[in-house]
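hey so u asked for the seq, here:
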Amino acid sequence: MNTISMGAYRPSQKLHPLSLLAQLASRQTNGCLQVSSGTVTWSIYLEQGKVVYASNTVDPFGRLDRQLRRLSAQVPSLISAIRVQLRLLFENSSESSLPHGRDYEALCWLVEQQHLTVPQAAGLIENLAKEILESFLLVQMGNYEVIEQDLLGGLPRLCQLDPRPLVEYCQNHLRRRHFTGQAPTAAEQSPTAGQNGTRPTAEKLAPAYSQSTNLTPARPAQPSSESSKATYKIACIDDSPTVLQAIQIFLDDKSFSVIAINDPVKALMQVIRSKPDLILLDVTMPNLDGYELCSLLRKHPNFKNTPIVMVTGNTGFIDRAKAKLVGASSYLTKPFTQSDLIKVVFKLT
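ran it, structure tokens below
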């Protein structure tokens, strides 16, 4: 069925999101509804009037990562290293052929690499759509256009969502939030539960998603579980028990085995015995500072190429130059977040 262009309002016009969705559903629209209000743009991708994917410009990869973290309790393969790799490949990628929908491309990559099944991806897309539509329904002023093109670049369709039950869910949820002020957000719902505990409305498309689809030919393939190491040994050398504990919590994942060392004098022998894949090394320690210890490690034949990350609160050029001079592979500045740490670890392992 041919779609009918709905044109575009001028900026800062009165918008009726519910009416827009109803018209697009009834006309079985193919394309993308883009709505802008202030600094935020919503993109709702449609096929035959059904929602294929929904996103907005407010930290789309952060939103996707939150959903993946929740799903990781049921899907062990969604380890933190895979989620970090996902962001490194797609979040700011110059290689992507898509001007829009990079978060959807990332989701398709997870299916292609068999970290997610199609039904799992469909449930996740439904949860994301609920979160996006809930904020979209509150838009009152802005502008919109319907782009009757495939902005997802021919990527496989993992599901189709009937917009009506999605909208009903969001409206009910907004009412509960209004009256109680304590109801969970749409993003906090179970990936497999719909409104009132019903099954998701996602409808799987035929034919089934092909595992042979090549989405990212320019990127290196994910190594198989047989050929990759089960865990990475990471030695953490720091005289602060608080820092050691924080790093152990941050790297609490099946992919990592953390060896905590709080005595810099004994660290060299412990590192030689444990043979870690990566070393996190505090700069400021009593008796033997991190630069000296790094230099000693680099002189040992077993650690000439082992990644060593200097961890410090110093941010000056001289400190970074000293780190490079003694052979450090990278530099991590305190205080750091879990994301900061995992990104550094993943780049070097």
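The longest helix spans residues 118-136. Residues 13-197 form one domain.
lmk if thats what u needed
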